[in-house]
Amino acid sequence: MAMRNALSQNKLVTFAVALAGVWTVLTALRVWNGIDWSAGYVGQTATSGIVGLLVIGGLFALMLVLYGELESNTPAPETFPRRNDPLRV
């Protein structure tokens, strides 16, 4: 049901977020495979690879949050001025 809500609200953004998520996972796999665990200080060392994977993981987490926001219907913007405002005279 969540994907249906996201697609009904904005198809382009939903597909863009999904495509960016797939690209992020593929990039993380490429970085993982490119790490030279035996390298000293030359090339893509284990330390730089792990830091890169942490950054990519953070980006993927932000994309999951964005996807979660796409699928929710609430809170929707309220009309202004509010109709049932008790302070309104």
What fraction of residues sit in β-strands?
under 5%
The N- and C-terminal alpha carbons lie at a distance of: 41 Å
The total of helices stands at 3
Q: What's the Cα radius of gyration?
A: 21 Å
Structural class: mainly alpha
pLDDT average, as an integer? 77
Oligomeric category: single chain
The H-and-E topology, N to C, reads as HHH
Molecular structure report:
With 89 residues, this protein is mostly helical. 1% of the residues are buried. It has 3 helices and no strands. Helix 1 (2-9) crosses helix 3 and helix 2 packs antiparallel against helix 3 (46-71). The mean pLDDT is 77.
Short description:
The chain is mostly helical and 89 residues long.
